[in-house]
Write a structure and sequence with these properties.
The chain is an all-alpha fold. Helices cover about 70% and strands about 0% of the residues. The protein has helices at about 15-30, 35-55, 65-85, 95-135, 140, 150-160, 165-180, 190-220, 225-234. Helix 3 crosses helix 4 and helix 7 (about 165-180) runs antiparallel to helix 8.
Length: about 230
């Protein structure tokens, strides 16, 4: 069953995750080295329970909002890693490692959602082109395939290719909307916003470079927006 958390369908650090560092701090005040072997199984139980609750959260979302569970998870795992790194408790290192892996997994799932939402037609087209080449089709033969002719390529570039800059800006604006800077902060971006934006930029630029290479090899053309220009924009 899904959690009954008030925030389970939205981004934000969940109450049970926020309480965890304070609980650990309280226990650490009274823990001696002799008692640590007794305490550690309790740490294991409560941390794994917290992770389990987080993995259940946001499970009943529709197609349009399912990306929110990725946000919920990477934001909470990011919080756990940050808080545990501050405390540097040796016996909790393995859970920090687990949390880092789950943070990365969910962050990449969210970035994948952004790529599909804003650049879906480009992703689909060039994924197919790459699959043809990997299946043994030569680059010169691609433009003779149905739906992948020079005319199809030029049509795609006029629509999707020319709007890459605008859509890249829209995607980064969405990230900033999801992770606004707290009113009490003097920073221009929260650390989580910065991390997500960087992950998105890295993926987009990597994909764009690959798309441009495929365009050159298969259609003897380049994408409308120069790679270096895109780097500056985002």
């Amino acid at each position: 069953a899904g959690m009954k958390e008030k925030n389970s369908s939205k981004s934000g650090v969940l109450p049970h995750m926020k309480k965890l560092p304070r609980f650990i701090d309280h226990i650490e005040q009274f823990t001696t080295e002799d008692a640590r072997s007794i305490i550690e199984p309790y740490y294991q139980k409560i941390i794994l329970s917290t992770f389990s609750k987080l993995n259940q959260a946001g499970g009943k979302q529709g197609e349009e909002t399912k990306y929110q569970k990725y946000i919920l998870k990477y934001e909470n795992y990011h919080y756990f890693v940050r808080e545990m790194d501050k405390r540097n408790i040796k016996s909790l290192k393995e859970y920090t490692t687990q949390a880092k892996q789950r943070y990365e997994e969910n962050l990449q799932l969210f970035v994948g959602y952004l790529m599909k939402k804003y650049f879906g037609t480009l992703v689909e087209f060039f994924d197919c082109v790459e699959n043809f080449i990997n299946s043994g089709t030569s680059p010169e033969e691609i433009s003779f395939k149905n739906s992948f002719t020079n005319k199809d390529f030029n049509k795609l570039m006029q629509k999707a290719g020319a709007s890459v800059e605008r859509k890249a800006c829209a995607a980064t604006a969405k990230i900033q909307k999801i992770h606004p800077v707290p009113s009490t902060s003097k920073a221009t971006q929260s650390s989580i916003c910065k991390a997500v934006t960087n992950a998105f930029k890295t993926t987009l630029l990597s994909q764009y470079k690959k798309w441009n290479s495929l365009a050159q090899n298969c259609y003897n053309q380049e994408l409308p927006v120069e790679y270096e220009s895109l780097k500056i924009i985002i």
